[in-house]
Amino acid sequence: MRATDGPAGLPELAGDRALLGRTSTAERVADILKSRISEGYFTPGTRLSEDSIGGALGVSRNTLREAFRLLTHERLLEHRLNRGVFVRMLSTADVQDIYRTRQLVECAVVRSLGERPRPLHTVAETVLEGRRAAHAGRWSAVSTANIHFHRELVALAGSERTDELMRGVLAELRLAFHVVADPRRLHEPYLARNAHLLKVLEAGEIRQAEELLVAYLDDSLRELLDVYGQRVAATEPGGA
């Protein structure tokens, strides 16, 4: 994949300047850039220009570099010697590790619902969000709704630390989603699976829900690796 300097003029990012307010910090800049990366505005392989982004946001070079450092620590960016800072392209090993983490956390949360049942309305809202996006043919938005489904599922644990962990994991996962050529093929089957999992949870069938989730994540990993591995191979030296 050819590295670029991002969208010309960065008009949308310039509009984010208002979010910084009077107390601009590297953390807030990092949050804005993380959102833009998650939305696919800056895609994997994109070189992030200090001059362009700093000018669009109206922040100093030092503030921007600290924001880059924070996002590098979160594994969303990488510094390439003498070339600059780029949005990361995940390896297939990265994707497998992300799913291992998801299995550990998401399945444990579902298992815990047998001891402390929680209202499921926030999870149900994400199922509707996905259906509306699919009806409109907005497959990137379907991907976002699916991420929201799993984020709200984990939020049932009522743990800020677990929420923070999964926000980072799911943000990394979106780096892989953004280079998949056919997002409909990847995400459409999980609209029905999300709805089915929700229905089983609403019925209080916790053991069945956990079994469904394990199979769900196994299938999702296999299908993502099938399409993502081909795309990654095509960007490597000697690839198609």
Detailed description of the structure:
The structure is a single chain. This protein is mainly alpha-helical and 240 residues long. It is 66% helix and 4% strand. It contains 11 helices and 3 strands; from the N terminus they run ααβααββααααααα. It has helices at 11-14, 26-39, 50-57, 61-73, 92-112, 121-135, 139-155, 160-177, 183-187, 189-202, 206-235; strands spanning 47-48, 77-80, 84-87. Helix 2 (26-39) packs across helix 4, helix 5 runs antiparallel to helix 11 and helix 10 runs antiparallel to helix 11 (206-235).
Please state the CA-atom Rg, rounded to the nearest Å. 19 Å
Order of helices and strands: HHEHHEEHHHHHHH
Strand content range: under 5%
Report the span from N to C terminus. Answer: 11 Å
- Going by helix content, strand content and strand pairing, the class is mainly alpha
Shape: globular
Strand order within the widest beta sheet: 1-3-2
pLDDT < 50 runs, ≥5 residues: none
Number of helical stretches of at least 4 residues: 11
Overall mean pLDDT score? 89
Helical fraction equals 55-70%
Q: How many E strands?
A: 3
